[in-house]
Specification:
CATH topology: Rossmann fold
Order of helices and strands: EEEHEEHEHHHEHEHEEHHEE
Mean pLDDT: 86
CATH class: Alpha Beta
Radius of gyration: 19 Å
């Protein structure tokens, strides 16, 4: 288990502060004339671990970009702690929301320590330079992700799982109460997927951070998240606890896939078993 005891815990909500940290209200998102998200309503409650699932092109990553203020709505709005996110200064958003995109890029030869230090940039200004607080935040993030001993290595020297942990460490160094992760297990083998998701869940549980993650693997989403949001064609079709959302009917409706959904005997979470067209139908005709 990684050492997470030193990561700073986000402050408790102030009196009158909304329990919903992020809210999409009639949110519409477009690329040119192509609308990707259609009048979507969605709440992200404080302190939850939410996984967004759905087929390619359904708007998952686009929604996450809007939550992180990287994409301006063509309709509706995103609220951060009850305020329209696009009316909040960029630096202030960066102090509250950490966003790790799907395929982050860094300059060649960049060390792990230098990458993680970039997470402190939102806290810098002409009158506030690098401080002992910044140094502490970087060290804590490195230790929490198990990257402290690799701090002087370049990203090019690391395995896929180690690189992903380094990027997560950078997001942690921001010390934001909200963490948005777009397919953090993309291009990783199964052991590294488990390693990364174990880390994210442990950080969520020990620090109280609100986590929103986009995942393709339905069984892993159900195993790690306490809330699932299923999307199709830019709309939310189901949301709630994994056992409520992840059903055979939903998998058929959203993904066009016949599957069996069973409860994992180890975790108790729904486990999706895809069926091919060659598999015999069951008695219910599925």
């Amino acid at each position: 288990m990684t050492d997470t005891t030193r990561i700073a815990t986000p402050k408790a909500p102030a009196a009158g502060r909304p329990e919903v940290r992020l809210r999409a209200e009639a949110l519409t998102l477009s690329y040119g004339n192509r609308t990707v998200v259609h009048a979507l309503d969605l709440d992200i409650p404080d302190g939850t671990f939410t996984a967004i699932i759905g087929p390619n092109g359904c708007g998952k990553s686009t929604l996450l970009r809007a939550f992180g203020r990287l994409m301006k709505p063509t309709g509706g709005q995103v609220l951060l702690d009850g305020r329209p996110v696009h009316r909040i200064p960029t630096r202030e958003v960066a102090e509250r929301v950490g966003l790790l995109p799907q395929s982050p890029a860094a300059p060649e030869g960049l060390s792990v320590a230098d990458l993680v230090a970039r997470g402190r940039h939102p806290h810098q200004s002409w009158y506030r330079r690098w401080s002992s607080d910044d140094e502490s935040a970087v060290e804590e993030a490195l230790r929490a992700t198990g990257m402290y001993e690799l701090a002087e290595r370049t990203l090019d020297e690391l395995s896929g799982g180690q690189r992903q942990r380094a990027w997560i460490a950078m997001a942690l160094a921001q010390r934001t109460p909200l963490l948005l992760l777009d397919e953090p297990t993309n291009h990783l083998d199964l052991s590294h997927q488990i390693e990364v998701l174990d880390l994210v869940r442990e950080l969520h549980l020990t620090t109280g951070r609100t986590v929103v993650v986009v995942l393709h693997d339905l069984s892993l989403a159900a195993r790690y998240a306490d809330r699932l949001v299923a999307m199709k064609d830019g709309r939310v079709v189901a949301q709630g606890a994994p056992r409520q959302v992840l059903t055979e009917e939903l998998v058929r409706e959203v993904f066009g896939l016949r599957a069996r959904v069973r409860l994992d005997e180890v975790t108790g979470a729904p486990l999706v078993i895809p069926l091919s067209r060659h598999d015999a139908p069951s008695v219910d005709g599925a």
